Amino acid sequence: MDHADTLPRFPGKPGVPQVRAVERAVALLRAFAPDRPRLTLTELAQATALDKGTARRLLHTLIATGVVGFDARAQHYMLDPAILEIASAVQVGSDLRDIASPILGEVSEATATSAFLWIPHEHAALCVDRVRAPRLHIDTTWFAVGARAALNCGAGPRIVLAFIDDDTRERSLAGDMPRRTAFSETSPAKLRKAAKTIRQRGWELAKDDFYVGLAALGVPILDRSGVFAGSLSITGLTADIVANAPTRHLKVLKDAAERIGARLQTHHTEVDRRQGRKP
Predict the structure, then answer these.
(1) How far apart are CA 225 and CA 240, in angstroms?
(2) Cα distance between residue 152 and residue 207, in whole Å
(3) Which of 27-31, 162-166, 264-268 has maximum average pLDDT?
(4) What is the per-residue pLDDT across 8-18, written as a single tens digit (0 to 9) for each?
(5) What are the respective helix, strand and coil percentages of the chain, to the nearest 5?
(6) DSSP letter assigned to residue 7
(7) What parts of the sequence cross the membrane (predicted)?
(8) What is the DSSP string of 162-181?
(9) How far apart are alpha carbons 98 and 101 in whole angstroms?
(10) Among 92, 93, 204, 271, which one has the highest count of C-beta atoms within 10 angstroms of its own C-beta?
(11) In the sheet where 76-79 sits, what is the strand order?
């Protein structure tokens, strides 16, 4: 099961009927993931709990609209480039991503790790940007841009857990917390306690809790007024991250988060000025 399958889903507005065919089509699109970009009809039917006939008809329509492709030789379905045109219109996290993107690259280069940018979204952590590690053999493909992660695993998501408001945290902890490895924490009580500790010290080190052999270090991004905007994290081999976390890596991350936060505040002030709002 992919991590996205365990994340919470939210019903539509009460009293407004939902179109079942649309729900099913969206479920088919969401069945694709960075670690499963090409799927057979059988795999798609199983992932969405649809019979093959229904899945095939929906996929045929999605192919006609250009968002799904089909490899007749391999009998595989995949997302087509038209989906990128839709994704490019997504505004969630765009301000933070635009400001942080060049700094994220600097962090990745300075630490020789994969760097990630996260924001809170629907009681999970949404990855809005990523720069791959120079050493591609340790690239974490499951945390691709647009992927959501539950808040119990990984330094970036656990920073989100620590810095969201109390009500949102409780609703997040009420959902499923996936156990990825033997080191994954799934107890709401322990996660609640961990969130308090993370918030007090201002950083998090997560070891082997998503994939044994990899660790992550994360810090919050706060604007100049102290408002939480998201989290910045790096991932690499556990031994490398642990050895460098309390010294060089943590300093790089904190400096980067401070620069992003300062630029974010300046950006918001400029937007307010242009729109005639008082800062």
Answers:
(1) 34
(2) 12
(3) 162-166
(4) 444 555 655 67
(5) 45, 20, 35
(6) S
(7) none
(8) HHS-HHHHHHHHTS-----S
(9) 6
(10) 204
(11) 38-39, 76-79, 68-71
Structure confidence at residue 36 (pLDDT): 83
Structure-token pair, residue 214:
């990899």
What structural domains does the chain harbor?
A: 3-87 (1.10.10.10), 94-274 (3.30.450.40)
Tokens standing for 40?
């057979």
- In this prediction, residue 12 carries a pLDDT of 53
What per-residue confidence (pLDDT) applies to 272? 47
Mean pLDDT (whole number) for 19-42:
86
Tokens at 261, concatenated = 């936060």
* Contact between residue 152 and residue 191 where contact means Cβ atoms under 8 Å apart: yes
Helix, strand or coil, per DSSP, at residue 234: strand
Q: Count of alpha carbons within 13 Å of 17, Cβ hemisphere only?
A: 3
Burial of residue 4 (number of CB atoms within 10 Å: 0-12, 13-18, 19+): middle
pLDDT in the model for residue 277: 53
DSSP state at residue 113: S
Q: What is the mean pLDDT of the chain?
A: 84
pTM of the model: 0.70
Helix (H, G, I), strand (E, B) or coil at 86: helix
Which residue shows structure tokens 């600097």? 106
